[in-house]
Structure formats: structure tokens, C-alpha cells
């Protein structure tokens, strides 16, 4: 059994994490958030929502340098910086100085790969070689948590975070809390009542159970097929949500077939557990996955498309899956997957993967290249 690690956050920590949910809603509706940065703060705006008045607010709030220029920067991930021909800095997040000639549209384009080929950006950009502070890392993490493009335009201010947030009626966050949020959300998962009966087309004896994190973030689901034995490794599938494949039957991927195939295999084996994780698009969210599809239609593969947007090839964390297994009473699994990272990710969270059980279906004309890329670039066994 995975040690429960005595999850008992302080009231203060709980308050901070709940604030993140409110901050994400603000970012998604086009408002900035405040991130503590030493004595001062960053006023951070999601790049994809930046318009002219928002940029003016950032310029007004920013401290001035010796020449009177406002200290506004746009922070992008190393992957996006590479697309912008910014020399490798060795840091995961890179700051680009926002000079007075840059307008809101330029800053949106800097973040958004959609126009890369039609309207190539004119550099070179003035980027900062120093490592980004914790506050800048937290700002970019917030964009990812909000499932927006992973780029933030920020003003560095000398005003204390609480004062600035109070004055502008915004949410102030501590960067350490933001950076620890994934772990908090996973460890705070709680089952919602008892599993409820859900006869499925492929498994008549099935039940479904929802798990909710304390921060108000997305719920994850577990489908328990049959009566799995708690004393032996359980046949398990960790399946990341794929609206297009699971629900619509998209032929761009193999998700729908894997989902139903896994349930059939569990039914045939007399029992199993399928964890359905709210991690659409390998953790980048549905809208960003649709952006990735558009880039793939320009000739890039699935990994390149993620990187051009500024994400890693895979942004998922497997701690929620491990926690759900623990809460369901399973400590060892026979994992239905072709993905070596899932095996390693789950084991790193304390779940024993006793066996990897392959899950393969014939390719179609639309997903052949996708499956080939999984094999060649992501090391999938297929
Ligand atoms: N970013 C991105 N996500 C994709 C793409 N195609 C499918 N996905 C997502 O990938 C996830 C599918 O992952 P899984 O079914 O867990 O598959 P996997 O990581 O390949 O591993 P196994 O299926 O277990 O071998 C879903 O969240 C899909 O939405 C794509 O082209 N880009
Ligand atoms: Zn899919």
C-alpha cells in the first residue's frame, strides 16, 4: 500500500490552494493575477488574452528602469523560446523584454503558434539570460493550470502583492503554493460516496466512482469492472480523457478503441479498474489539443506540435492515478498500456507495476503517423 503521507495541510495552505482555483478563473476570463515576488509582486496576464487596455495597465503598474522604461516581460517556456529562435538559456522558462514598440497583438502572436507560418515574427528578441525567479515560474504554471497558452505577460512592481491585489481587486498568490499545486490537488482527492452501478455495453458488471480534489479543480473517475481481487495485482488502465477519440470516435488517435478494448479485457478477466483522468490532450486541455491538431495539419507530428505551442510532449502527472488506486485499496497493478512513461510514472508514485499488458489495435489511415510517432519519439511499445 502506498504510504498515505499523512495528508493534513494547514488551514493557511488550504486557503492558498483554494485561491488558485479563483485565480485560474480570472485568468481564463482575461483578468490578471498577482504573484508575490520578494518585497514586490508580478502583475501577470495570460498572453492569449492580452489586449491594448490590459497591456496599458501592465505598463502603468510596472516599476521603471534607469531610462524610464516600464519593466514588462513576457515569459514563455523553453520549448516556445526555441520556436522564436531564442538561443537556449538552459532554463525552463525564458523572459523576453517587452519594449515600447511591442503592442498587444505582437505579444499574443509571440505566444500563439497559429500564425507562425503565415506571419513569421520579426526578431531578434531581447531575452533575459538570468534564471527566471520563482514568481515567473509560477506565472507560467498558472497559464498551464488554466489550460491557456503557456505564456504570461508580466509587470514587475515594487508594490506589495496584497496591496496591489487589493487596489485592483485581484487574487494574490504565493509562488511556492502554485508550484506545489499539482501534488496538493492529487493528495487531497476524496471519493464521493460509494461506487454506483453502471452496466456498460462491454461490461455488464461495472461501477463508477468519482474523486474530487479539495481545491475545486477537475474531478477524476474510476470504473471498477467485476469484482477485482484486492490481494493480487489488479488489471488496470490509466486512461487520459480524450473528448474527440473517446466520445466522437475520432480517427486521429487510438483512444476510443483503447478505452473500450481495456473494458472488454477487464470483463473477460473477471475484474479490473479503469481510471479516467481529467487530463485531456496529455494534460494540455482540449482547446490546446485542437491547436496542436491545427499545427499537425501543417505537417508537424504530435510531439513537435506540443513543443511549438510551448508544452512538453507530455504534461501529465500520475499522482492522481496513484492516489485513486490507493483509496480504492489497490497497491499493485497489471497495467494495460504501451507507454513506458506511464509505468515509470506510476511506480515513482509508489504503485507496484507487476506486469505491463499490451493494448494494441490496428492502425487506420488517419492515425498511422500518430502511432508511428508514439513508437519512434515517445518510446511506445506497439
Ligand atoms: N497533445 C496531444 N494530445 C493528444 C493527441 N492525440 C491524443 N492525445 C491525448 O493523449 C491522451 C491519450 O493518452 P493515453 O490513452 O493515456 O495513451 P498513451 O499515453 O499513448 O499511452 P497508452 O495508450 O497507455 O499506451 C488523451 O488525453 C488524448 O486527448 C495529440 O495529437 N496531441
Ligand atoms: Zn485521443
From TrEMBL:
EC numbers on record: 3.5.4.25
Ligase among keywords: no
Reactions catalysed: GTP + 4 H2O = 2,5-diamino-6-hydroxy-4-(5-phosphoribosylamino)-pyrimidine + formate + 2 phosphate + 3 H(+)
Signal sequence annotation: none
UniProt entry tagged with the keyword Nucleotide-binding: yes
Cofactor annotation: Zn(2+)
Pathway: Cofactor biosynthesis; riboflavin biosynthesis; 5-amino-6-(D-ribitylamino)uracil from GTP: step 1/4
InterPro entries: GTP_cyclohydro_II (IPR032677), RibA (IPR000926), RibA-like_sf (IPR036144)
Domain GTP cyclohydrolase II: 197-358
Active site: 314, 316
SUPFAM superfamilies given in the database record: RibA-like (SSF142695)
Binding site residues for Zn(2+): 242, 253, 255
CDD domains in alphabetical order: GTP_cyclohydro2
Residues that hold GTP according to the record: 237-241, 258, 280-282, 302, 337, 342
GO molecular function: GTP cyclohydrolase II activity
Keywords: GTP-binding, Hydrolase, Metal-binding, Nucleotide-binding, Riboflavin biosynthesis, Zinc
One Pfam entry name: GTP_cyclohydro2
Cofactor binding note: Binds 1 zinc ion per subunit.
Protein purpose: Catalyzes the conversion of GTP to 2,5-diamino-6-ribosylamino-4(3H)-pyrimidinone 5'-phosphate (DARP), formate and pyrophosphate.
Similarity comment text for this entry: Belongs to the GTP cyclohydrolase II family.
Name of protein: GTP cyclohydrolase-2
